[in-house]
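Table S4 entry, Phosphoribosylformylglycinamidine cyclo-ligase.
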Amino acid sequence: MSENASIYAQSGVDTAAGDLAVELMKSAVARTQGPEVLGGVGGFAGMFDASALLGYRRPLLASSTDGVGTKVAIAQAIDKHDTIGQDLVAMVVDDIVVVGAKPLFMTDYIACGKVVPERIADIVRGIAGACEATGTALVGGETAEHPGLLGPDEYDVAGAATGVVEADRMLAPDRVRDGDVVLAMAASGLHSNGFSLVRHILAERGIAYTDRSAELGASYGEALLTPTALYTAPLLRVLEDPELAGADGTSAVHVLSHVTGGGIAANLARVLPRGAWVEVDRASWSPLPVFRHLAELGAHSLESLEGAWNLGIGMFAVVDAAKAPQLAAALTAEGLDTWVVGAVSTSSRDLAGFEQGAKGVDGGAVRLVGSYAG
C-alpha cells in the first residue's frame, strides 16, 4: 500500500479492498460482454459499440434506473448477498422490456460503509449472472465506500440500463383495443417491493430473519430473499416470434406491465389507454404461501395488501384476443406460468372503486373483483 493510500485508509476508505473486489468479480462481468463492449473492466467509462443500431429503421432508446429498496436490509441481516444482484437487474431490465425493447447494456452502483471484497463480489456476481441471462452487457459500475455515513455492514445498490426497440414495434397504450385479453405471469415471490411492510410485520411479531418458518419451509430471511423473476429473455423471444404476430404483422402482445411498487391494479392501469377498464378476477389464481403467511402474521386481508405486494403476479400482458391461447401457452413453455385474468373494455360505465392511472400517468382504470382461489 502506498503512503497516500495508507493515509486515506486512516479515514476508513480502503482502496486496496476495492481493487481486490474488482479482481474477484472480473470473470463474472466478462461473461456478460460480447464484442460490442470495448475496454473491459476498470475504465472511467463503459464503452458499447452501437453499430448494430444502423440496421434499425428508427431505433428508439429505452432507459431505466432503479434499486432494490429495503430488501437489502434482510440480506445484510443474514449475511447472504448472492441474490440481491438479480433483484437489481430484474427491477431495471424488466422495466425496459415493457416497451418491447431489447436491453443493450447496464451499469451498477454500490454504496457501502466498508468494502468487504467477498461481499461486493457476491453482489456483482449476482448482477452479472442476471445480465447474462437477460442478454444485457454489464459495461461498468462503481463501488463507493462511505464510512461514517453507512455502517460497516450496510450497503445499498442501484443500477441503470439502456435498450433499443424499433419505433413501429414499440409496445404502448395506443395499441390496446376493446376486447383484448389480459394475461398474468407468475411472480417468484415478493420480488423487490413492499419490504418495509414485511419488515414491520416481522418486527411487530418479534420474529428474527434467522427464525425458521414451517409454513415457508425455510428461515424467514432465506424465504424473503427469493430473487425477483427475470422476464426479459422469454418475453423477447415471444415478441419476436412471427407465429405469434397479429394481423398487422407486429406482435399480438399490445402492451406489458411490470408489477412493482404501487401494486397490482395501479401498475396495470398505467399502461391502459384513457377510457379503457379491466376487472381482474382474483379467482384466477391463488396467492403464494409467502403472501398468505405474512398477511396472517400481520392480521391483514389479502385484499388490503393488493397495493403493496404483487400477490403472485409479476407481469401483465394485454394481448389480441385471437392469439391469447397461443401466447399463454408460449409464455408458459418459456418458463413463465401464464393465465387469463380479465379483458379490456372501453364501454361506458361507472368507474367508482377502480384504480385510475398511476405515477403521473393518466391511463385506464382497473379493479380486482371476486375472491382468491384457495
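The chain has a mean pLDDT of 91.
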